[in-house]
Write a structure and sequence with these properties.
Length: 470
């Protein structure tokens, strides 16, 4: 593979806008704090570099309190002194210092942080306009494109590395809006918060995480896409906080089994498994079992994509939503268009948290086996006050109660437990144990391989489960 002839001119043009960020935090205690995790560094006897290595590896402090220091990277996006970095670089810091390539050091104040995307915006007060860089269009970045990272790995500021985009849309379970660009450009500890440039000098990503068994680069690094970062940075600068759109849906992934059970044309979209009471979508237009395929003119490929798209949409906007819905059991799914006015996610999270009720203080007793024969490894019972008490079910819950699950059965393999409530089978409501057994028997008679079941836990949260019939 032949790379670019040289990135020297590009690095020279951009390096002054990339900064090192040092933070300190006072930590009470008598135990010495470990230094940064770095490889063993040695220099010849008498070398002036030895003092640098010693300072890097050894902590300083008194017996009563230690000042823990950390290093990271960032970049200037506005000549007036706006700096972008990762939230984890400056989290819990008492002091934040931005170090520039010319040796200038400026104290920084936090403009705003967003833990959900691990981004932070800082402000410094320069005496003259600063060199700055601009965000690019990360959606145009292709797998195989050359990219360049500049940062502060292991405290060695101004380090330039080059690689390619290895993958897009990576989910590493770092947050609710994971959509990382993966690169093999060397990224190490201290690169966090630094920019990932395309070959035009635009910031297409913000380096934030690596996968490594050693702490050093093995060629798997992750960057926050610029388009996601731009929206966050813009809101933090304007409001000092995030104001994300909120739909008020509980979502579930569309699997092959669920797509077959719902009669979907393909395995795409976000399955609605629940609607938050009094949330924006609680207006009767969206129903449990709908599959969201388009939102505000944008395609929804998976259940992971929809929350991010909604969050990027302005609060209070009335958006058009396309859903796939089975309007009748004997009819194929149809596309239905609805409209919902978005709320604010941060307000919704507070409301949901305040509405959560503590578990009831009731004793749990082992359920006695019921006389009916097990179906798919489950025994069913009509809902009764005694069962609600036994399994601590929410008062408003209705449906059929699973009272026993056979070990190593199809139901057990799907994580179904005693106390689960069956709401629907094959998208038809069930209200009695006889209903459940009859519908499952019919599915078997009809030659169906799987049973699509809508189930609720004791708090009433819903999920779709596909249980093999044979």
């Amino acid at each position: 593979m032949v790379g670019p002839a040289s990135v020297a001119d590009l690095a020279d043009r951009l390096s002054n806008a990339v900064v090192n960020i040092s933070t300190s935090q006072k930590v009470e205690g008598t135990e010495p704090s470990p230094g940064p995790a770095v490889p063993k560094l040695e220099a010849p006897d008498g070398s002036p570099l030895q003092d640098f290595f010693n300072d890097l590896l050894q902590g300083n402090g008194d017996d009563d309190a230690q000042r823990v220091q950390s290093l990271g990277s960032g970049f200037v996006i506005d000549p007036s002194g706006i700096v972008v970095t990762n939230n984890h670089v400056i989290q819990d810091a008492d002091e934040i210092t931005v170090n520039f390539a010319d040796g200038t050091k400026l104290d920084a104040k936090i403009v705003g942080i967003d833990p959900k995307t691990d981004l932070a915006v800082l402000k410094v007060e320069p005496k003259a306009p600063l060199a700055a860089v601009a965000f690019g269009d990360s959606d145009k970045v292709r797998i195989g494109d050359w990219v360049m990272a500049i940062g502060n790995p292991f405290g060695l500021g101004g380090t330039v590395t080059v690689g390619i985009v290895s993958a897009r849309g990576r989910n590493i379970n770092a947050g609710p809006y994971d959509n990382f660009i993966q690169t093999d450009a060397a990224i190490n500890r201290g690169n966090s918060g630094g920019p990932l440039f395309d070959m035009y000098g635009d910031v297409v990503g913000i380096n934030t995480a690596i996968i490594s068994p050693t702490g050093g680069s093995i060629g798997i690094g992750f960057s926050i896409p610029a388009l996601l970062a731009q929206n966050v940075v813009s809101q933090l600068r304007e409001f000092g906080e995030m104001r994300r759109g909120w739909l008020g849906l509980r979502l579930q992934a569309v699997t092959d089994d669920i797509a077959e059970g719902l009669g979907l044309p393909n395995v795409r979209g976000a399955l609605v498994a629940g609607i938050v009471p009094r949330g924006p979508a609680d207006n009767g237009q969206i129903k449990v079992g709908d599959v969201v395929t388009r939102f505000d003119g944008r395609d929804v490929a998976t259940s992971r994509d929809l929350p991010r798209i909604v969050a990027e949409t302005p609060v209070g906007k009335a958006v058009d939503i396309a859903v796939l819905r089975k309007t009748a059991v004997d009819r194929p799914v149809e596309t239905v268009n609805v409209q919902v006015t978005l709320g604010r996610l941060e307000d919704g999270e507070k409301e949901v948290a305040s509405a959560e009720q503590p578990p009831k203080d009731t004793a749990t007793v082992d359920p006695a086996p019921l006389p009916d024969a097990a179906t798919l490894g489950m025994r069913f019972s009509d809902m009764t006050p005694e069962l609600k008490s036994r399994y601590e079910l929410a008062d408003e819950l209705s449906g059929v109660v699973v009272t026993d699950v056979a070990p190593q059965s199809a139901a057990a393999d799907k994580g179904i437990e005693a106390g689960t409530v069956v709401k629907e089978i094959a998208q038809e409501a069930v209200t009695t144990a006889d209903d459940a057994r009859t519908k499952l028997a019919k599915l078997r008679t009809d030659g169906r391989r799987n049973a699509l079941m809508l189930m609720a836990d004791k708090a009433g949260d819903l999920r779709f489960v596909v249980v093999p019939i044979d």
